[in-house]
Amino acid sequence: MIPLIQLNMLPYREEQDKQKKAQFTRLMVFSGLIGVGLLVFTYVSLSGLILNQESRNRQLTAGIEQLDIQIKEVETLEAEKRDFLARKAKVEELENKRFEAARMIDSLNTVAPEGIYLTGIKAKDVSTYTLSGKATSDSKIADLMRVIPSTNVFGQPSLDRINKVESVQEFELTVAVSASAPMNGDYANVAPVVMSSEAASVASDVSASIPNTPVAPASSATATSSPAN
Questions:
Q1: Which of 6, 47, 118, 189 is the most exposed place for a label (fewest CB within 10 A)?
Q2: pTM of the model as a whole
Q3: Shortest CA distance to 170 belongs to which of 207, 222, 134?
């Protein structure tokens, strides 16, 4: 008996191809799902990081705005402080000027001999002043020039001008602030101090009584009369 060869007549190759295609399809679907999952995870992660960074940025922006407000407040306070200190310094300067102006007048009133009537004090510059007034005689002017240095406020004066008007001698003296005088501030800006004048008796020629007094060029400065002793 001759053995028969078994032949498979079924389309097994097609079946294998179908199985391979199905397996490939499942693999592709699974890979696609994994890819989509990774994309979703990446998107969610990045979105979370972006949201977190945006939140931090908002906090930083709010902090910067708060710091800007505080800086403006500090600048305002600094400006107010500078303004206050400037006003304080100005007030102190004015106080010093008033005090020194009063001191000058008081020192002159203290040493001025009888018969001398000061009509004005005007600042020429920081340390030089012009004294104008009237005297009953030339000797009174000489006495005034001798006693002015004793005030410790002014130095030795020089005679600028003397003019006989009716029955009195009108005169002008230039005097510098003494180097030893404890004076502060800018006295060139002190307003002219005015004092009232009074008529006096006839005066003689001042040059006869004060021949050694240095005479400076005539000054054009004038002063308004006002009260003084």
A1: 6
A2: 0.41
A3: 134
